[in-house]
Every structure is written in C-alpha cells, then in structure tokens.
Design a protein that fits this description.
The chain has about 300 residues and is of the alpha+beta class. It contains 7 helices and 19 strands. It has 3 domains: about 5-85, 2-Layer Sandwich (Uridine Diphospho-n-acetylenolpyruvylglucosamine Reductase, domain 2); about 90-205, Uridine Diphospho-n-acetylenolpyruvylglucosamine Reductase, domain 3 (2-Layer Sandwich); about 220-300, Uridine Diphospho-n-acetylenolpyruvylglucosamine Reductase, domain 1. Helix content is about 30%, strand content about 25%. The longest helix has 19 residues, at about 270-290. The protein starts with a helix and ends with a strand. The structure holds flavin-adenine dinucleotide. Flavin-adenine dinucleotide (FAD) binds next to strand 3, helix 4, strand 9, strand 13 and strand 15.
Length: about 300
C-alpha cells in the first residue's frame, strides 16, 4: 500500500481514524494476526459511501470486520484495507417492537436495549461477543435462538456506493450462513429486528441463566473465536474431538480447551499457523476415527499454507 494512497484515503474521509501497518491481533478475540496495510475505523455511513466505490474502482482489496470474534487472521496479515465498524457505528433505535441497529452495535448492547424496552427474542444474543453486522452475516445463534428468527430487514452497501435492502427471507439464512456471507464486498449498514412484547423479569432471568451456562461450560478466560467448528449434523463437534483424544492437545500456544473441546484457545502467544495446524490435525483425527468431516466455523483471513 503506497503512502500516496494512504494520503488519498485520509483526504477522502478526514474524520475517520486511519492507521498503517496495524496488528490485527489488537482487533480479534483470538488476539492473533499480522498487520493490515491500512486499518480504518468508521463511524458514519457517509464515510463508507465515499470510501468503498473508490477502493473498488482502484481494485484495492478491502475487508470489513466487526469485533473480530469469529476471525483467524494469518501471521502475514492482510494486504489491503481492513475496515472496522465498531463502537462509533452503533446507533440503536426502538419503534414499538422493532429495533433498528447500525451494524457496529454489539449484540450485547442491542440485547440490553431489548430488555430495557421489555422486548423478548434477543435473549440468545446477550452473550455473543460480536456486532450486529457480524451476527447477521454469520446468522449467529445460541441456545435455540438465531438471527434468522428476528431479522426482518438488512440494509447494505454495494461497491458502487448504492444502498440496497434484503428482507429476512431474502437473506437466505441457514446454519451459520447467509446470502451476504458469500459477498464480502457488500457491507451491512443497518439491521431491523422484530421482537415481541415480554416480561422484563423473565427476559432478564433468561439472560442471566444463559450467561451462567456460558461461564460454566466455555473457556471465557482465554482468547478464542468461540466454537471453532460447525456442529456436524447428528453430532456435537466438542464430543467428537474429546472422544478422538484431542482434549488439551496443543500446537505451540494453541490448544484444544479441556473445559470445552469445541473451542481452540490461545494460551499465550499462539500464532495463526499454530491454530491452523491444530485445526487441520483435529479434523484429520476426527475424520479418521469417526468418518465425520468437521467444517471450521471460524473464518480465515489472509494467506495460510
Ligand atoms: C467466547 C465466544 C463465544 C461465542 N459464542 C457464539 C455463539 O454462541 N453463537 C455464535 O453464533 N457465535 C459465537 N461466537 C462467534 C462470533 O461471536 C459470532 O460469529 C459473531 O456473530 C461475529 O461477529 P463479529 O462482529 O465479531 O464479526 P467478525 O468476526 O468481525 O466477522 C465475521 C464475518 O462477518 C463479516 N462482517 C462483520 N461485520 C460486517 C458488516 N458490517 N458487513 C459485512 N460483513 C461483515 C466479516 O467480514 C466476517 O466475514 C463466539 C465467539 C467467542 C469469542
């Protein structure tokens, strides 16, 4: 990325935070990842509308992230521009039982707003450590709820700077998947969610119960990206991994959590290559012993061997 181009982006969106050679380990929950050539924090949709057509026109690779809670970024980092929608891109509006949230709003914050407004349907999301944008791309879900159940509209930006809209149905939500997941050039701007009136005490009790279940079962004390693998039909990934003898298995500082065998954790200074090798070995071991192919839920960004 030339200095000249960095200057051009800075002039185009002067109010945005822009830095060069930013370690992605600072922006992923795995605390892993080499540098992005350019890293931009966006706070306004208008900044994206100026930036994206320019990057597309110049064929500069870009990638949008939320909280990086489902990402493994390679040790070599990302050659191009990483755009983060977090914190400042997080306006939330409530209109009767409809919540409209900007893509950078955290799932926890939106769930809290639902609680304050006595709206039920988002309890499952309170403990998912990502943004609404990432959640809608991934069709994030937990404990029987998923984004598919509540999302009614998704507004997103095309590479030419136009804003388009998908209904919940048009999003083609499936298990940890959506139509926009296969179009990383499109950027989710805003998500509309329809909830139901509920009882505040009951909503709170459910959230507290789910938070306790997470704390008891998940290695939340270590950096990770949550469940490393998707749930194979008819099985539980963690059980297969444990039964195959991988509980506690390590490659460098990357380890299969003993508390929850479905989580790969970073116990110190794990490299992306360690995590990748561990994932590959676990997949091979499980396939060899049980004939089940584990598909990673974690998304890989950058070059891997
Ligand atoms: C401790 C822990 C527990 C977890 N528990 C769960 C769980 O219970 N259920 C679950 O489903 N997941 C869980 N996860 C995984 C993760 O939190 C979710 O997948 C979450 O939805 C990712 O959101 P994010 O904002 O961090 O997205 P990122 O990880 O930053 O990005 C994920 C994908 O979404 C894309 N993306 C992000 N924002 C946008 C946008 N605005 N426009 C277009 N594309 C975008 C990225 O390009 C990438 O492809 C967990 C993770 C951790 C660390």
């Amino acid at each position: 990325m030339s200095k000249e181009y960095f200057d051009e982006i800075s002039k185009l969106i002067p109010a945005a935070e822009i830095v060069c050679d930013e370690p992605m380990s600072k922006h992923t929950t795995f605390r892993i990842g080499g540098v992005a050539d350019v890293f931009i924090k966006i706070s306004q949709p208008e900044q994206l509308q100026l930036l994206i057509p320019k990057l597309a026109e110049k064929k500069i690779p870009y990638y949008v992230i939320g909280k990086g809670s489902n990402l493994l970024v390679s040790d070599a980092g990302f050659r191009g521009v990483v755009i983060q929608l977090e914190d400042a891109f997080d306006e939330i509006q409530v209109n009767n039982n409809v919540i409209t949230a900007r893509a950078g709003a955290s799932m926890a914050k939106v769930a809290k707003v639902a609680l304050q407004n006595k709206l039920t349907g988002l309890e499952f999301a309170a403990g998912i450590p990502g943004t609404v944008g990432g959640g809608v791309i991934m069709n994030a879900g937990a404990y029987g709820g998923e984004m598919k159940d509540i999302v009614t509209k998704v507004r997103y930006l095309n590479t030419d700077g136009t804003v388009a809209e998908h209904t919940g149905e048009e999003m083609q939500f499936a298990y940890r998947n959506s139509i926009l997941k296969s179009k990383p050039e499109c950027i989710v701007l805003e998500v509309e969610m329809e909830l139901q009136p509920g009882d505040e005490a009951e909503i709170l009790a459910t959230m507290q119960d789910l938070a306790k279940r997470r704390k008891d079962k998940q290695p939340l004390e270590y950096p990770s990206a949550g469940s490393t693998f998707k749930r194979p039909e008819g099985y539980f990934a963690g059980k297969l991994i444990g039964d195959a003898g991988f509980g506690g298995y390590c490659v460098g500082d990357a380890s299969v959590s003993e508390k929850h065998n479905g989580f790969v954790i970073n116990t110190g200074n794990a490299k992306a290559a360690d995590v990748k090798k561990l994932i590959d070995e676990v997949r091979q071991g499980v396939e060899k012993q049980f004939g089940v192919i584990l598909e990673p839920e974690v998304i890989f960004l950058g070059e891997f061997e």
